[in-house]
Design a protein that fits this description.
Helix content is about 70%, strand content about 10%. The protein is built from 2 helices and 2 strands. The model has no long low-confidence stretch (mean pLDDT about 85).
């Protein structure tokens, strides 16, 4: 994988972790800390006329679980990429230094 592709992956995956995990943890905190009553109401605003918005404990639970799972998945994938790249870099450095010594028949 090229260096520019690695940089793009770091930016995309890092950004995904940095915004989805805190949002998910915020909604999990709201779900566990507060006993918000379930509400449905007509959304206000020019672009949302006639749509129904919901609020309450179930909404906090659903958003918390979804965003937390997305954040954790991207965090794990990012860490797997990192360890893979570091191992490959160490292996290539070792081979550059010592050369490939095999039986080579």
């Amino acid at each position: 994988m090229s260096q520019s592709a690695k940089k793009v992956l770091w930016i995309v995956f890092g950004a995904q972790v940095l915004w989805s995990l805190p949002i998910g943890l915020f909604f999990v905190w709201r779900w566990l800390a507060f006993d918000d009553p379930e509400r449905s109401y007509i959304c206000s605003g020019s672009r949302s006329s006639g749509k129904v918005c919901t609020d309450g404990e179930t909404t906090n639970m659903a958003l918390g679980i979804v965003f937390s799972v997305i954040g954790v998945i991207f965090l794990v994938v990012t860490l797997l990429f990192l360890t893979s790249w570091l191992r490959r870099r160490a292996r290539e450095s070792f081979l550059r230094t010592h050369g490939a010594r095999g039986s080579g028949s």
